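Hello K.,

You asked for the raw outputs rather than the summary table, so here they are, unedited. I folded two proteins back to back in the same session to keep the settings identical. This is the first:
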Amino acid sequence: MNSWNNTNVRYFILVGLTDSGEIQLVLSLLFLLIYLISELGNLGMILIICLDHQLHTPMYFFLTHLSFLDLCYSNVITPKTLVNLLTSSKSISFMGCFTQMYFLVLLSATECFILSSMAYDRYIAICNPLHYPVIMSPRLCRALLTGSYTVGFMDSFVNNLCMSSLSFCKSNIIHDFFCDLSPILILSCNDTYGTEMMIMFLAGSTTIFSLIIICVSYVCILSTILKITSTSGKQKAFSTCASHLLGVTIFYGTIIFIYLKPKKSYSLGKDQVASVFYTIVIPMLNPLIYSLRNKEVKNAFIRVMQKRGVFRQIK
C-alpha cells in the first residue's frame, strides 16, 4: 500500500469506447437495456429457484450463485460505464480503479470454479445416477461453493497486491472503459515482467485447472451418452447438459482470448469488443441460456406464477 504514495497518479481517466457523442448516446441506451435485462434476468432466476421447491437441487444451487455472480458483475462494470458515456467526467479514483479490478478478478475466478462444480454435478447425475443424492450432498455442495469463493478471493488479493507494487508515472489515461489489468500495466513506469508473469500464472492456473475439470467431466458424460441405445435417452441426457455447455463455451472462449496473453499483444479495438462482450453481455446471456433452453425453469416459473395467482387461467 505504501507504493501507492510513491506514484504521481491520483486518479485515472477512462477513455471509453468512442469520442463521438452520437455513438456514445446509442451505446448508453444499448448498455442500459442490457443492464436492465441482466439485472431482471438474474434476480428472476434467483427468485424462481428460491421459491420453487422442485428446483432445490445441487444443479440449481450452483446456478443460483452463478446468477448472483453475474448480478454483481453487472453492478461492478456497467453503472460506471453508463456514467462515463452520459457525462463529461470520465475519471475514476486510484482506489476506485483498484476496487473495480479487485472485484473483476474475484468474480471471474469464482465463476470458473462454479462452472466446473456444475460440470461435476452433471457428470455424477448422468454417469452415476443411483448414487447422485448421496454424492452430491448438501455438505459437498457447500464445500465446492466455499472452495470456489476462496480461490476467487485469493486470486484477486494476489493480483491487487502485485499491481499495488507498481508506480504509475507515465500517464493516467486508460484506453478502455473500465479498469482492466492489461491497459493499466501499460501505464506503469516499472518493469512489469514479474507482475505480468504472476498475473498470467494465476489467471492461467485458475482457467486451465477449472477447464480440465469441465473437460474430463464432459468426456465421461459423452462416453456414457454414447452407450445409451435409445435415441430419446441420448437426447434427454444431452439436454441436461446443453445449457451449461453453451454457457461454458461462451465464458471460457472470451476469457482465454482476453487474459491469457502478454500485455504487449493487447489490441485496443479487438480487446475492447471482447471486453464489452465479457463484462456487459455475458451477465445478460446466462439467465437467458439457462431459462429459455431449460424446461424445468420454464415450468417452475409457471408454477410460481400460478401460486401467486398471476396465471390462474393456466391449470
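The second followed immediately with the same parameters:
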Amino acid sequence: MAGRLTTMSHSRPTNTSLLELHLSGIPGLQHLHHWISIPFCIMYLITLAGNSTLLCVIKADPSLHLPMFLFLSMLAVIDLVMSTSITPKMLSIFWFRSTAISLDACLTQMYFVHAFSVMESGLLVAMAFDRYVAICNPLRYLSILTSPVVAALGLATLLRAVVFMSPLTFQIRRLPLCSPGVVDHSYCEHMAVLKLACGDATFSNTYSLSVSTYVGSFDSLLIALSYTLILRAVLSLSSPQARKKTFSTCGSHLCVMALFYIPGLLSMYMESYHQELPPHVQVLLANIYLLIPPAFNPLIYGIRTKQIRDGARRVISRRRPIAEKVGPSPQGTGLGVKSIP
C-alpha cells in the first residue's frame, strides 16, 4: 500500500499544490557539503569585499568617473546581485540542510541568475569595445564614449536580459510540475527545474538552448574580435614594455571571460543532452561560472589597474586628515574640550 502511494505521489502532476521545492545541493557529494562550503564562502566574501570596495573608490574619486570605470561599476553591481542571489541559500543548504524553497522564490532566483548572467555577458562586450576604442583610437575616446553612449549601452544590456529571460520564467511558471519537487541542483537552475515538468517542455527547453547559444556565441565572437584588433594594434607598438603590459592585461581579461562562458555553456549542454557524467560535475560547473568570475573581476579589472590603485590611495589620504581632526589632540579630549590639569 505504501509503495502504491509513493508511486502515485511521484506520477501526480500538479501546478497549484506544489508550492514548495527542495534543492538537493550537489548531488552525490552531500557528505562533503561542509568542506565544499569553505571555498564557496571565501569566494562570496571576496566578491562582497572586492566589488563593494571598487564601487566606493570609483564613487569617491572624481578622476575615475570615466567610461571604463563606469562600466566597471556596472559589472560590480551585477556581480554582487548575481552572487547574492544564489550563495546565501547555497550555504544554508550546506550548513543547515535548509533545502526548502518556495516555488515563487525559486522562480525569482532563476530569473535573477539567468537575467544577470545575460547582462554580464553584454557588459563584457561593452568593456571589450571600450578597451578597443581606448587603445586603437585614444584621441577620440571621450568623444566616442560619452556619458549618454555609456548609459545607452548599459540600458541595452538590461533590456536584452529582460526581453530574453522573461518568456523563459513565464513559460516554466505555466508548466505543471510533478511531486516530489526535488531539484537536483544547488540553486534553481532552469534546466534542473524543467526536469520536474509533467507537461510538454519542448518550447522552454528549445528556447533556453537557443538564447544561451546565441548570447554565448555572439557575445564571445564580438569580444574575440575586439581583442584581436587590440592585439594587432599592440604589435605595431615599438616599446617592448608596452607590448608586454598589454599582453598581460588582455590575457588576464580573456582568462576571466573564459571562466564565465565555458563552464556555463558546458553545464547547460550536459544538462540538456543528458551526457553520461556524474551529476555533481554539471552542478559544480554551473557554480564555477557564477562564483569565480564575480570574485576575480574586482582583482583583475580593479587592483591590477593603476588608476584604481591611485584612486584608492587618494581616497585614503583624503580621509586620513579628517580622522585626525575628529580624533583627540594633545591639549584636549576627543570632544574638543580642554582637559583639566
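The mean pLDDT is 84.

Happy to rerun anything if the numbers look odd on your end.

Regards,
P.
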